[in-house]
Amino acid sequence: MSKLILSMIVACLASVLFVGQASAHEVYSYYQDGSCDSEYGFEYVCGATDSSVAGSGEVIASYYGYELAGSLTASGEPFEPLGLTAAHKTLPLGTIVTVCYEECVTVRVNDRGPFVAGRDLDLSLGAAQAIGFDSVGVGAISVSY
Questions:
Q1: Contact (Cβ atoms closer than 8 angstroms) between residue 138 and residue 60
Q2: Cβ-contact 70, 78 below 8 angstroms
Q3: Residues 124, 63: contact at Cβ < 8 Å?
Q4: 74, CA 20 to 30 Å: which among 35, 94, 100, 121?
């Protein structure tokens, strides 16, 4: 078998293995007004680009890590567990948010979620570690954007 055919087979298998793994963070039905529904029936603002959104306060956060590594985020980029990113239900993708627990760090919203009732923000593992939140898992943090 030639190297070209072998590499094509490997590429096809990789696309089936990785692209075919849809997670709750990837499956949306999009509408013209910029909203969308996830496969779980939650409504989100998926394509908003309004950068004039501003606010601050305390939110309930959680974090996710290596279990979703490489999964496509709502922004279309692969999830990097050690990156400084977050998922939010309605903030425009690309919004910069300062999150604080024991320390503060700036993250960029690149995904939609959390998909658990009562939670407002999902942090990447890297962001959770940066603010000392990784040992907590779920709890209140301060945010400003």
A1: yes
A2: yes
A3: yes
A4: 100
